[in-house]
Amino acid sequence: MYIGRKYKSVQMKLKRRNAWSGILFGIGLVAFIDETVFHQLLRWHHFYDKSTTDMGLISDGFFHAFSWFATIGGLFMFADLRRRNGLWIKKWFGGVLLGGGLFQLYDGTIQHKLMKIHQIRYVENVIVYDLIWNVIALIMVLIGIILLFTQNRENAGAYEHEFK
Amino acid sequence: MNLNNHIHSINHHEIGIVPQLILAIPFLLLLVTYITAVIVSNRRLRKWPFYRIILWIFGTSCVVVSIIGPVAEWSHTNFSIHMLVHLLFGMAAPLVMALGAPMTLFMRTIPVSQARRLSKALKSRFIVVICNPVVASILNVGGLWLLYTTSLYSYMHQHTVLYVLVHFHVFIAGYLFTISIIYIDPIHKRTHYIYRAIVLIFALAGHGILSKYIYAHPPLGVPIIQGEIGGIIMYYGGDAVDIVIVIFLCYQWFRATRPRSNERSFAI
Q1: Residues of A numbered 77-96 whose beta carbons fall under 8 angstroms of chain B's beta carbons: which are they?
Q2: d(CA A121, nearest CA chain B) in Å
Q3: Any alpha helices (H) in chain B, and if so which ranges?
Q4: Domains of chain B: which residue ranges?
Q5: Is the Cβ of A47 closer than 8 Å to some Cβ of chain B?
Q6: Which of A10, A48, A83 shows the shortest C-beta gap to B212?
Q7: Best of A62, A77, A163 to mutate (most B CBs within 10 Å, chain B)
């Protein structure tokens, strides 16, 4: 009885850590792609846009710092799950898509449009870019939620060998 | 732009050899002390790790390059170079030197009775307060905000005493910040990983926001283009140094929470 309860609570914690590791890494991954591809390689995004609001500056600073930490922290959590034989790859990928999608959505709506930190690209029909950006974000969020919250029978006993 | 250049040339003031030496000598003394301590303690105890000696020498070299000689001179007239030097002197050198574990080395070198007294002194209220992650972050990043958003930056280049004080502050605050976030040497009143992670994110954000602020509003007397390059150097250079601190912090968490073989509990 006691062992059963403990097993369940450990399983819950592992499940939660799979999701969080994925979410953190997802946020970091999207921020990293944003930085390398859109800022550095394509040079579409500007380092600083004169119309940036003060809130935009602060929000950008915090998300930049947080995503930097999240990339590394998420990967250490991934390593932690592996050494505990607790990695549940479907949940983890669900987390990556959810975290990455939410961050991209926040970036594409609030940071780009409301706080005007910079536009996706400095062209006339930027709305097309905005649409594609945010639709991709929404699709990522949806797939992430589906992966995270649907029960998968195959994996239901994923941790059993751990407790034999 | 021309006006800015003009102001800059008026404000510019040569930093003589004396203040450069005042800044450099303590670090050279520390280097001599460190190496002496290694030689003395190696006679009695297990060999002090070689890589720590290299780290300390490398850190000292970063400091010396930033405060004395041609690079230091250049940094007084060019803000972009000033930023590079700031990264080297205020972030990279403190981190590299902290990884040299000087306090551990010093403790094992001096007699036990004195080491005990020193250890007691390190537990004093003052040291505990300034080694607190929040206090150290405010001293570090808050000091930078003060330096770059007020006229302190241009005063610093006019008044030699201020120049020396600001430089000591930048280094010491950078060092305190590093040892308050990652534990290499013994430290009293350790704080939780998550607490330190949050403080680190706030400090990193404060640094990033300041970099973009400098990009848009360079300090008095700095030409716009140098301010822009300086801001970008500060933003990405800060990331480069902080990635090392983040990895150390996460790795220390990873080591501390490793599962014991006979234990199924799930410590965070």
Answers
A1: 79-80, 83-84
A2: 19
A3: 2-11, 17-44, 50-67, 70-77, 79-86, 93-98, 102-109, 112-122, 125-130, 133-137, 143-149, 152-156, 160-181, 193-216, 224-256
A4: 2-256
A5: yes
A6: A48
A7: A62
Q: How far apart are CA A83 and CA A78, in angstroms?
A: 9
A49 touches A117 (CB < 8 A) = yes
Q: Contact A6/B266, CB-based, under 8 Å? A: no
Average pLDDT over residues B233-241: 92
Distance from the Cα of residue B129 to its chain's centroid: 18
Q: What is the per-residue pLDDT across A82-115, written as a single tens digit (0 to 9) for each?
A: 998 889 999 999 999 999 999 999 988 888 888 8
Least confident of A64-78, B47-61, B152-166: B152-166
Q: Does A66 touch chain B (CB under 8 A)?
A: yes
Instruction: Pick the residue from chain B with its C-alpha nearest to A14.
Output: B266
pLDDT in single tens digits along all 164 residues of chain A: 456 677 778 888 888 899 999 999 999 999 999 888 888 787 788 888 777 788 888 888 898 899 999 999 999 999 999 998 889 999 999 999 999 999 999 988 888 888 877 888 888 888 888 888 899 999 999 999 999 888 655 554 444 444 43
**Chain B interface test: which of A49, A69, A117 (most B C-beta within 10 Å):** A69
Other C-beta atoms closer than 10 Å to the C-beta of A29 total 20
In chain A, which ranges are continuous DSSP H helix?
2-33, 54-83, 89-106, 126-149
For residue B239, give every residue at least 6 positions away whose Cβ sits within 8 Å of its Cβ, in sequence order, or none.
A64, A68, B204, B208
Closest CA to B20 of B59, B57, B63: B63
pLDDT in tens, B166-217: 999 999 999 999 999 999 998 888 899 999 999 999 999 999 999 999 998 8
Do the interacting molecules here have an ipTM over 0.85? no
A56 to A32, A114, B15, B167, B168: CA distances (angstroms): 19, 8, 39, 31, 33
Q: Which residue of A has its CA nearest to B255?
A: A80
The DSSP line for B204-227 is HHHHHHHHHHHHHSPPTT--HHHH
Q: Who's near A111: CB < 8 A, 6+ residues apart? A: A56, A59, A60, A63, A117
Residue B266: pLDDT over 60: no
A84 contacts A136 by C-beta, under 8 angstroms: no
